[in-house]
Amino acid sequence: MLNCREVTESASDYVDAALPWRARLQVRMYLVMCRFCREYVRQVALVARMLRRLPAQEPSPEVTEDLLTLFRTERE
Amino acid sequence: MRPERAEGVDEAIVERLLAGDETAFSELVTAHHSSLLRLALTFVSTHAAAEEVVQETWLGVLKGLKSFEGRASLKTWIFRILVNRARTRGVRDGRTVTFSALEDPDGEADTLADRFSAQGRWIEPPAMWHEQDPEALLLRRETVVCLQDAIASLPSGQRAVVTLRDIEGVEPPEVCTILGITETNQRVLLHRARTKVRASLETHLKRG
Questions:
Q1: Are residues A47 and B190, on separate chains, in Cβ contact within 8 Å?
Q2: What is the CATH number of domain A4-75?
Q3: E-assigned strand segments in B12-160
Q4: What is the pTM of this model?
Q5: Which of A43, A53, A57 sits opposite B198 (nearest CB)?
Q6: Choosing a second label site near B25 at 20 to 30 A (CA), which of A30, B17, B47, B122?
Q7: Domain coverage including residue B52
């Protein structure tokens, strides 16, 4: 029998669909019954999605120019 | 999400680069430079050092173009060059970076230890997060900073994996190739990283 702590330990794998099918089914059924674990797993998934959307910085024009110079030098 | 590369696209880019096509190179730089910087910071301590490592990486990419075989994707290949350069530089600067889950300083330490009873039931359950939309949550600058700080405080192995998997969206097998770790190792590190980042965000959101 699963308990809440064990479910949180599987949260990351569950969110990635990386659990073996039996374990996945067990966790899924547990989540139907436990709202705290359900919320926890939802938060782990949300964190992963937020990280995916973190702003990235494009390289500055100076950096791009430096690298282009590098590129031209290497071509010789 | 970045679209899947069609077969032959990487080879086409490499050909253009070998032919001296500057547009191809600037496109490649624009596509990967900031991701490379982020990953470099996992290994080196200063932004300046990270910039140097990324510069060396691009040099390595250009020098090694002829030997690109297309076995891994171009992106994976570039990231691997970065990891090698960054590791060397990190070691030179006195940092040890290990990706073994066994050597991960967290080891058996459990972020959530005191929130469960001995029977494994919640004593301090997670607070409900009323905002569920990632874009809405990221509108607040403090939330973005909270996430960035949480990532920056992770041990290197966890930071490298969560950066590649969750921030950069690199597929699991490619992450294993880039970092030279097993699938199991990667999943353990990712789990620990996400657990910590969620906990930091929870503390931050509680403050309102």
A1: no
A2: 1.10.10
A3: none
A4: 0.89
A5: A43
A6: B47
A7: 9-92
